[in-house]
């Protein structure tokens, strides 16, 4: 009996959220965000190595303030960071990430997060995201994979968003991803579309 009551209460709650979102006619949002920033590795004396990432996401808007986000992030450090040119004018990558014999780092994340936003004006808002992510990262030495690590970690983002009346929006964001021993902080710009 208790289970049946809980199911009915959950259905009524979700229906009220759905009705509020439907009234605004903007229950869905898809977007992409490009970021660049720094990666740090546990016990490394040479943290702050550069990474670039692409984050694709979908939001389901419950009301004017809250949304649930599902995202996919992919990132890589540059393995073409040249510190010298040989006699044939080819790039020599002498970069060592995290003060180790690592010349490339790649990672991907599957994200689930809650997004809260606060309107400043009709079109401007500040937002924050907090959630979890399933990650997998790999490290390479001279093109050979030397580490392949998976797990679960924290995902945080805060930023500013501008929404046009036609459904398009742009944002600027600070993002933090914790992958146990590897963590990143980055600055990104993105575009999205609500419908």
Automatic annotation (TrEMBL):
Protein name, per record: Porin family protein
Pfam families linked to this entry: OMP_b-brl
InterPro entries hit by this protein: Beta-barrel_OMP, OMP/PagP_B-barrel
Organism: Pseudoalteromonas prydzensis
Residues in Outer membrane protein beta-barrel domain copies: 11-195
UniProt KW keywords: Signal
Signal peptide start and end residues: 1-21
């Amino acid at each position: 009996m208790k289970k049946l009551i809980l199911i009915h209460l959950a259905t009524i709650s979700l229906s009220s959220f759905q009705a509020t979102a439907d009234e605004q006619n903007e229950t869905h949002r898809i977007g992409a965000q490009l970021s660049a920033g720094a990666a740090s590795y546990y016990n490394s004396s040479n943290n702050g190595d550069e990474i670039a990432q692409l984050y694709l996401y979908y939001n389901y808007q419950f009301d004017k303030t809250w949304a649930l986000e599902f995202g996919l992030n992919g990132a890589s450090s540059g393995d073409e960071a040249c510190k010298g040119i040989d006699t044939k004018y080819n790039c020599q990558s002498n970069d060592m990430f995290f003060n180790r014999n690592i010349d490339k780092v790649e990672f991907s994340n599957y994200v689930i997060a809650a997004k809260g936003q606060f309107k400043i004006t009709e079109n401007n808002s500040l937002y924050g995201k907090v959630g979890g992510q399933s990650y997998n990262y790999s490290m390479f030495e001279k093109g050979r994979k030397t580490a392949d690590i998976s797990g679960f970690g924290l995902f945080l983002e805060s930023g500013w968003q501008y929404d046009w009346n036609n459904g398009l929006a742009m944002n600027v964001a600070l993002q933090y991803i914790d992958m146990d021993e590897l963590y990143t902080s980055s600055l990104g710009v993105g575009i999205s579309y609500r419908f």
